[in-house]
Amino acid sequence: MTLLKHEDLLKAIFDRDSSDALVLTPLLDKGQITEATIDLRLGTEFYVLRRTLEGGLDPRRQNQNEIDDLHERIVVPIGGNIWLHPGHFLLAATLEYLRIPRDLSAYVLGRSSWGRVGLIVATAIMVQPGFTGSLTLELVNDGDSPIRLYPGSRIAQLAVHALDGPTAFGYGPDGKYKAPTGPQPSRLAKEAHEIEKFQRVKEAIETRLSTGNS
Amino acid sequence: MGAISARVEREHDRFANASTKVAKSTLARQVRFLISLTWGIHEAMPWLDPPRRQLDLGTRFLIEETAFAMIGPPVEVLPVESQHYMYWTLSWPFENLWDGRLHETMPRGTRPIVLAYPAREATSALLHGAFAHELGHPTVDHHNLLSAVADPVLAGAAYTSAIDAIYGPGTNAVTVRQKQILSQRVEDWIEELLCDQLALAFLGPSFLFCFAAMALPVTWNEPQDRHPNATMRVRFMLNTVIDRGWEGLLSDKVPRIWEWFREAAATGPSLSDPATTLLASVCEDVEAAIRKKSSETLGDELFDSDAYLDVTERLGELLDNDILPAQLDPSTAADHRHILLAAWLHVINRCGGNPEAIPASLRERDYQRFIAKALEMSTTFRAWNRVGSDDATEARGSA
User: Fold this and answer.
1) Who among A26, A44, A179 is closest to B322 (CB)?
2) B71 — alpha (psi -120 to 50), left (phi > 0) or beta?
């Protein structure tokens, strides 16, 4: 994999056909394309986890709707702001809608100016070839002071890598518009079957001697 | 609430020494009346205390632009969820309280409009074009469009003799009331047609698709008390669509739906009683005036078919490639109305291109979120560019 530098990024964005271009829209300012990354801006939608009196997140016990219901959607228009307090967590999305062609992949990284005040921007940082949509950002204030966030701010950066060639299958929407346009709550409920399986594995471990299948 | 409280104080002073049963009863009646006025306050609550759940920003931007184009500033639109499956507006929520019942002068300023949408359709960016018709009602009121169109007809000798032919020339109370009711229906029908034409003038064929999704299959050719039969409304809209140069695009991009619209337009009302016939005839007579008034009201904001045809290929290319249609090129934001129309045409064809594709399109919730995002981002990009050019102008000025 080769990291795309400024000129390569410009070519991938502006010189390719619509069908295989690297897309970032709206690209408000070409200055967002730096030496070897592209600055990404903070979008206008957020999810916060509701406080609850009935426990918390449990991917084994809760279905996806129940997990979704633990989140509250907040819209902060351009010009507004939202505070992130120390230790608090917020799901956000990039202002830009992206499409990564099948011969590229990317990594989302924080920007040092935000990192130095304690803001962690993304934990799930790999963007697969073929990804289409706004990127969900997991924001955590790891500093000691509350941080005021403004939609539109350059909050993250995208490092784009060229693959050896296009992947056969992308992460794409397969003809349906499933591309996210805002932050996406966790899809942890999809993991429930595997957690259940490990419960059965545990039982199998415990009963292995009595059934003689050691 | 202050005005109501003041009235309560006045009534208290007025009846302070009341001792007779009649006086006490009058006071009680006055207080009950004042309590009933608080219902009006309740209707205005969405404006006073906006709900936390909100429409997406893209749709809100489009609504604001529609209101701005139709009514002009200062206007403030507040979308709220309705539990009924309908769109409606409440304009000047306090007007009835202040001017009509409290005999106080209402302070004028920003015109507030509470705009309700079906809660079930909160994310239906495509269907929300129906807002444009509902914003037509305060527009008709604001610009006195109904009087301009209906008064000459209702005052004309032809209408008088036609209504006399139905109910007789008598002046007894029953006849007079029957004539009043029919004349009110004439005004109601004309107002609905004006709202259709205002919406069509601003949104173009997108409104026709919204109408086809919401109203056309429900009532088809059955006239309603306050609404003309939907087929007549389609006929008027198709005439305008043709007049404004949209026919080629629609017959090319959605031919089967275009044929369906033509079939609807050719379908007469289900009733042929004299009153319905007169209503339809009056509407036919004022069709040209309705179209002219709606065009004049929109002025430069009229949706230009040539401007759309210039960008239709580019928008189609973006949609075909799953690219958010917010930017046409690195420096140009897509127009909201262009996005909405391109989105309708694109999804209708993806859903098969038949009339059934219109409701099927509305089931594509993710696609509609995608379009709402495009509306939001095109606004953001356009505003960014405007600020950029202001900055450049300022820099040149200071240099």
Assistant:
1) A179
2) alpha
